[in-house]
UniProtKB/TrEMBL annotation:
<keyword id="KW-0560">Oxidoreductase</keyword>
<comment type="similarity">
    <text>Belongs to the nitroreductase family.</text>
</comment>
<feature type="region of interest" description="Disordered">
    <location>
        <begin position="164"/>
        <end position="188"/>
    </location>
</feature>
<dbReference type="InterPro" id="IPR000415">
    <property type="entry name" value="Nitroreductase-like"/>
</dbReference>
<dbReference type="Pfam" id="PF00881">
    <property type="entry name" value="Nitroreductase"/>
</dbReference>
<feature type="compositionally biased region" description="Basic and acidic residues">
    <location>
        <begin position="164"/>
        <end position="173"/>
    </location>
</feature>
<protein>
    <submittedName>
        <fullName>Nitroreductase</fullName>
    </submittedName>
</protein>
<feature type="domain" description="Nitroreductase">
    <location>
        <begin position="22"/>
        <end position="79"/>
    </location>
</feature>
<dbReference type="InterPro" id="IPR029479">
    <property type="entry name" value="Nitroreductase"/>
</dbReference>
<feature type="domain" description="Nitroreductase">
    <location>
        <begin position="81"/>
        <end position="155"/>
    </location>
</feature>
């Protein structure tokens, strides 16, 4: 979606880089391969995310082949699978729970990845709707790592290819006003 169309849904209260407004989570993907050099830029950006004590507790398990993506489909909930099956790349973000802030740091890595994807002309959509225990089993994830999200990565497709109920949701979402998420001094 172009920046002009995105502006209809998102207005910043203060001037910020447009990448923050242009990044959103579509569900329609083209069945078009993402070139290796472009895909690796996303994970390189994630690698440089800040982390407590520089522990970098995250890892990404990716699926690019048909066979690997089908393994991932086995643990993704049906409501997500109906749209993410066309995504050419799926990734599971896991984090080492021996680090007390592993989820926070993994979320930062996801944020860096998603912003770099926007810069590369790609779209991403993180999903919490998956069976974590089954993902652990299928992907041989050790017990000291927690599966956080599954991320669909690719080029944006047309909303008309989605089921009708998802077409209605295929647009950038707005955000709460800044005064609803920022307080000063103490919780109010």
């Amino acid at each position: 979606m172009s920046e002009i169309k995105t502006k209809a849904f998102r207005q910043a209260e203060h001037e910020i880089d447009p990448v923050y407004l242009n990044r959103w989570s579509p569900r329609s993907f083209l069945e078009k391969e993402v070139p290796e050099e472009v895909l690796m830029k996303l994970f390189e950006a994630a690698r440089w995310a800040p982390s407590a004590n520089n522990l970098q507790p995250w890892k990404f398990i990716i699926a690019r082949t048909k066979e690997d993506r089908e393994k991932f489909h086995s643990f993704i909930n049906e409501g997500n699978r109906i749209w993410c099956e066309k995504a050419p790349v799926l990734a599971v973000l896991i984090s080492n729970k021996e680090d007390p802030v592993h989820s926070f740091d993994a979320g930062t890595a996801w944020g860096y990845l998603s912003l770099q994807a926007t810069r590369e002309g790609l779209v991403t959509h993180a999903m919490g709707g998956f069976q974590r225990d089954k993902a652990r089993e299928v992907l041989n994830i050790p017990d000291n790592f927690d599966p956080q999200v599954v991320i669909a990565i690719g080029y944006q497709g047309e909303k008309e290819v989605l089921p009708e109920k998802l077409q209605e949701r295929e647009q950038p979402s707005s955000r709460k006003p800044l005064n609803e998420v920022l307080v000063e001094g103490e919780f109010k």
